[in-house]
Amino acid sequence: MSRDGEGALIIEPVRRGSGDLPAELADALRTGEFHHALRTAISHRGLSLARLRAHLALRGVQIGQSTLSYWQRGLRQPEVPKALPAVRALESVLQLPSDSLVVLIGPRTSRPRGHQAAVSFHDLRSGDMGSIVDQLLADLGVLPSSNHSNADLELLSVHDRITVDERRRQVSIRTRLVTRARRHGPDRYVTVYNGDPGCKIDDVELITAEGCRVGRIRRHPGGETMATELLFDRKLGEGDIHVFCFEVRDDSSALFPGYYRMLRDQAASYLLQLQFAPTAMPARCTRQVRARDDALPVEAEELPLDTGGVTSGYFRDAGPGLAGIAVEWN
């Protein structure tokens, strides 16, 4: 590696010396994309992401399991030059030739900061949920081929506050979003609500506060899912900041198991707070990050519960994936 006369970083091809590697891994390093090569190398070494993270820490590199998960799934790309020490440490831990992963990173793109490619509901949800959501969005005029109903809005901040009553049931979810228009024209936001088992979706209410009003609503017959159009009072110009709030009221579900926000795109800041009734405090609350709803957490941290019955989980640069708090009652 070298720098040109203006100090710009140049990544030069090197001989990888991959003759001792399995053919599949050697081929991935030679012709594959970074995430495919990384995933293949991790599989070859037989390491879990937790063990891989521990090995990196021994080399002085601190990196989250969620970041490693995003890298190996191709949902994020290491940034040059910031991530070079971490990528070189990965080469060491995974016993790969020097620079074999570095040369696959490529130059940093000119995509706006924080704008990651959105993933589909099928990437995040198990079972038929992805198809159900696609159907509801199609009824609102959002085609599956467009991939992301809110692509023109960058999520700067999301704040969810959930109230749980003395019966240990969810009563309401209050959401406040701070967004920035990526280009001229967005005038609405589409939100999808999926209730817990036992939810009566026809009885669920959505009430707006500042910055938006309710447009069209589509509910899945006999299911637990609805999609709602939140309309702004104007078309946003490129770069405009827009703040809006709404509340979902649903007291039809069973015992509250916790809450996860599904993030198809990246959110710079996500704060989730749970408010419990004084007479119905949980035994344990755990902040968790998951790549999919049916996957084991890539991050898990026990949270304190204050004397007022509130616990808070904060997530920075969250998504794509699921971020939330799991609740145990006994």
Describe the structure.
The chain has 330 residues and is of the alpha+beta class. 21% of the residues lie in helices and 32% in strands. Helix 1 (23-31) packs antiparallel against helix 2. The radius of gyration is 22 Å and the shape is globular. The chain starts with a strand and ends with a strand.
Q: What coarse outline follows from CA principal-axis ratios? A: globular
The number of helical runs is: 8
Q: Evaluate the radius of gyration.
A: 22 Å
Q: If you average the pLDDT, what whole number results?
A: 82
Broad structural category: alpha+beta
Count all strands and give the number.
15
Q: How far is the N terminus from the C terminus?
A: 56 Å
Give a short account of the largest sheet: 6 strands, mixed
Strand order of the largest sheet: 6-9-4-3-11-14
Helix content: 10-25%
Percentage of residues in strands = 25-35%
SSE topology string: EEHHHHHHHHEEEEEEEEEEEEE
Low confidence ranges: 1-18, 107-116
Brief synopsis:
The chain has helices spanning 23-31, 34-45, 49-58, 65-73, 84-93, 102-105, 121-124, 129-139, and strands at 2-3, 9-10, 153-164, 170-181, 188-194, 205-208, 213-219, 225-231, 241-249, 258-263, 267-276, 284-290, 299-303, 310-318, 321-328. With 330 residues, it is of the alpha+beta class. The strands form four sheets. A six-stranded mixed β-sheet has the order 6-9-4-3-11-14, with no helix packed on it. Strands 10-15-12-13 form a four-stranded antiparallel β-sheet, with no helix packed on it. Strands 5-8-7 form a three-stranded antiparallel β-sheet, with helices on one face.
